[in-house]
Specification:
Length: about 375
């Protein structure tokens, strides 16, 4: 209750306003004393680690297990925190990839910066390092997968060209090798196209040309394009007679279908049937691509649409690929205003289903 004579206003006091401002930052700050005990904390500490360390507790008891540059970050005499807090302590910043710690709520990746204060205490700045780590890991994957996927066809092209230069080959052999060189060059071209597509989607620069489009026509073109790759698989297409027009980018829809159908072929045994069907629902059209192939385990289904995610089958067999295909498919479907999902049973087959908007005739 307000004492008489005190002016009561609805505005927050300076302290609580500052706390509110600090809580809105991406970085939290914990001040610890020379013994590593928490003095106070501010900013979004609870959102970062799921708890606010109690004043007087050891910070190392809340943030457990962090190590960087060969030393513990928070716990013990040789830790970065102890060194920052020692007389004449020096500031320290965690490497770009952040520090792995265990908190009560589970594992976390934190960016950490330590700054000695004039009072002899240390300011510990904490930020979420998970996103940056994900970006750095994607960069590593890009380098390792692309160099592998570039090297394999290039080595084959080089070897075949060498043979053709060094030996007097018959017409038939020459033709066969030229065909192989052409297919390997196509694989290289596809890889470069995928990297460019992923980068355009990431940067929001993917051009889009939405037009009223007949699904039947796009499918006819796609089926013709894939005819030689079906390897004896029977492809059935079922569309309802009253299928509305779609409001899509023809080339992008075609790319989505080619990709899903190529995967259906790639991950199913020769002769296994592949089916496409579509239905309209609430202003959208749902298209399903179903195969009876190797299927995908439930625990792997969540990461399929992420960049560079590939799943090794039980036999350790690796089909060529970059793990960019479904990432691009998802990006294109979402760009056109739809969504994509997978349902699959390991060993029995998969269904990839996506939606795109139906075209509404102007009234
Ligand atoms: P890529 O085929 O180049 O590896 P994708 O992004 O198209 O990349 O697919 C990612 C992974 O998802 C594949 O490596 C494969 O393990 C799995 N996958 C995709 N489609 C299917 C499918 N129809 N059946 C079983 N597994 C699939």
């Amino acid at each position: 209750m307000a004492r008489q004579g005190t002016i009561v206003t609805a505005a927050p006091s300076q302290g609580s306003r500052l706390a509110e401002v600090l809580a809105g930052l991406d970085q939290a700050c914990v001040v610890v004393d020379a013994a590593g005990r928490v003095v106070e904390s501010s900013g979004p500490i609870d959102a970062l680690i799921g708890a606010t360390p109690a004043a007087g507790s050891l910070l190392a008891e809340t943030l457990r297990g962090g190590e960087a540059e060969g030393a513990p970050v928070f716990a013990g005499e040789g830790s970065h925190l102890a060194r920052a807090g020692a007389a004449g302590g020096v500031a320290w910043r965690s490497p770009l990839r952040g520090v792995d710690v265990e908190v009560d709520a589970g594992p976390r990746v934190l960016g950490v910066a330590l700054r000695p204060l004039a009072s002899g205490e240390t300011a510990v700045y904490l930020s979420d390092g998970a996103q940056l780590r994900e970006i750095l890991e994607a960069q590593d994957a890009l380098i390792s997968i692309t160099s592998h996927e570039l090297k394999t066809p290039l080595t084959a092209i080089k070897a075949m060209a060498e043979l053709m230069i060094s030996y007097d080959l018959g017409e038939a052999q020459r033709k066969e090798m030229t065909g192989d060189i052409y297919r390997q060059a196509e694989r290289l071209e596809q890889l470069i196209r995928e990297i460019l597509d992923a980068s355009q989607l990431d940067s929001g620069r993917m051009p889009l040309d939405l037009q009223p489009t007949r699904l039947k026509d796009v499918l006819a073109e796609v089926v013709e394009e894939l005819e030689t790759q079906m390897e004896g698989r029977k492809l059935t297409v079922k569309l309802p007679a009253d299928m509305p027009l779609l409001m899509v980018d023809w080339a992008k829809l075609s790319q989505v279908l080619v990709n899903l159908l190529t995967n259906a072929v790639k991950y199913s045994p020769e002769g296994a049937p592949v089916a496409v069907r579509a239905m309209s629902q609430n202003g959208m059209v749902r298209v399903e691509v179903r195969d009876q192939g190797i299927g995908i385990r439930a625990e792997d289904q969540g990461r399929l649409f992420k960049k560079f995610q590939r799943i090794q089958d039980a036999g350790g067999r690796r089909t060529p690929g970059t793990g960019l295909g479904l990432y691009i498919v998802k990006g294109l479907v979402e760009l056109m205003g739809g969504a994509i999902e997978v349902s699959s049973k390991h060993g029995q087959g998969s269904t990839f289903a996506f939606t795109v908007p139906a075209w509404e005739a102007p009234r």
